UniProtKB/TrEMBL annotation:
NADP is among the record's keywords: no
Protein name stated in the entry: tRNA-binding protein
One protein family per Pfam: tRNA_bind
Domain TRNA-binding: 15-119
The species this protein was found in: Aureimonas ureilytica
Key words of the record: RNA-binding, tRNA-binding
Length: 119
């Protein structure tokens, strides 16, 4: 595995197709003090096919709770769930590190239907 600044080894389009990245709308966001690193506990609605999923997101520096509900985000929905403290995180919410290494959520330029897949 390479560090975040080094490009990864090339993959095939078939490899890319295995990663299921979908858009969803955050329906609830709350503090997650039990997480090892500062995080928020999110519930994200991915539409009728996938439903609502939980995510632990380390976005506490660049995002506030009051701005999150109603915001569309992208997440990997086909990783196995991961136990984080008392919560089972079901999806990986996507973001990028800023110049200081704090996570900034990946953003859409226009609203799209929940559950839409990245391609």
């Amino acid at each position: 595995m390479s560090d975040a600044s080094t490009p990864s080894a090339p993959i095939t389009y078939g490899d890319f197709e295995k990663v299921d990245i979908r858009v969803g709308t955050i329906v609830s966001a709350e503090p997650f003090p039990e997480a090892r690193k500062p995080a928020f506990r999110l519930v994200i609605d991915f539409g009728p096919e996938i439903g609502q999923k939980k995510s632990s997101a380390q976005i506490t520096v660049r995002h506030s709770l009051d701005e999150l509900v109603g915001r569309q985000v992208m997440a990997v929905v086909n990783f196995p769930p991961r136990q984080i403290g008392p919560m089972r995180s079901e999806v990986l919410t996507l973001g990028f590190p800023d110049a200081e290494g704090h996570v900034v959520l990946a953003a859409l330029s226009h609203p799209v239907p929940n559950g839409g897949r990245l391609f």
